[in-house]
């Protein structure tokens, strides 16, 4: 079943491919075939990715693990990898510095919060930030993503001003990424909208000298460094390196982010000029060691990444899926089945195109319904448990049905009660109606038995006669009408009078028709 629909971009790419194929006398590739190929690749990738083991989040430390000998307080057991990373390499974003509930804000490093300034966690990268520090004006219900996770998802963030790829990022005017803390601590930088804490601005005002400084912690010359606040010291370091090494960094965020942005009073010291009180709680020497180790290992990783070490990877560092040769070969077979020439080249072209398209979309290109995955994965020993669960759920559903029936019954009874109440209220407020009704019904019945003489009675008015007809009460029909309009509700006497008037009218009528004569007899 082909589920993929071509878009304009595909159209453009396909016509380019076809032009190229025409030159070497290869056959034309139709839209239909292109859609088949993309659907095929999506399905293959879907099947494959189901088998990719999930990223390991925990690490077991055995009783004689050598890597963690330095951390004597670490008992053997299961550890969150982020926690171990923070122990070995330090942390510049506060992720997993301690128990989850105490994770500090990646920007101000405070963990206090109140209703107006809550700490929110990014569901993509696990950083925590204060609403004010990151400019989260409104917390959405459900998941919240930081700016980078929302827009660039799997791509690694690269700060313009430092080598760190972790932390709270925002964008600059040109769309590049930068740490919020880099934006705060580098004196020349500003935020276009302090409320939203975004678009890091004024980059052109950062002096050339700052870009040329080499960080004394990570020893890298990249981005822009800040310097020790001691007037006689020229020590330079990246904002995030200082953070990771736990250097003294004082700011006035206690006074609120807006005030601090205004005052720009951010002060930091190198390890030699650190105030002694700071050293009581911070092991800076150790911190610098950890930071250096972190960037050394990072470099090794990067080299590995560049040395064609892609065999065990499913995705590139920016999230491009890496298709194994097997799928490429399968696609060739598929193309050959459709008798397409030049299938090997076409297969690799289409695989590349698909991977790039997948990278930009960061989501499957087709919707795959997979009704079998859940049932296929059941193990035999789990079946009795599943049956028990199903029976339990079934029992619950039956109970629900019973409750629903009872509710319907209750509502019906309530309705009946309302009807009775309504009648009672009517009887109390309009007691006359109840008295009139049976009389009127009896009269109608009698009239019905006598050819409706009273109902159709038409008194005639003669000029000059002394008879005075009550023109409202012409016959029985007008009385019934008056009754229906509730005009007797106030007094029994009026009804009584009207009946009398009607009877009088008949009796005094001078008409000699059979009808009237019969009626007179009856009355
Ligand atoms: Zn904060
Ligand atoms: Zn995030
Ligand atoms: Zn940075
Ligand atoms: Zn550095
Ligand atoms: Zn210094």
TrEMBL record:
Gene Ontology cellular component list: nucleus
Compartment(s): Nucleus
GO MF annotation terms: zinc ion binding
Domain of life (superkingdom): Eukaryota
Subcellular location, principal: nucleus
Positions of the PHD-type domain: 102-152, 156-274
Keyword Zinc-finger annotated: yes
GO biological process: regulation of transcription by RNA polymerase II
SMART domains reported in the protein's UniProt record: PHD (SM00249)
InterPro entries listed in its UniProt record: Enhancer_polycomb-like_N, EPHD, Histone_Mod_Regulator, Zinc_finger_PHD-type_CS, Znf_FYVE_PHD, Znf_PHD, Znf_PHD-finger, Znf_RING/FYVE/PHD
PANTHER family: BROMODOMAIN-CONTAINING PROTEIN HOMOLOG (PTHR13793:SF107), PHD FINGER PROTEINS (PTHR13793)
Protein name: PHD-type domain-containing protein
Species of provenance: Ascoidea rubescens DSM 1968
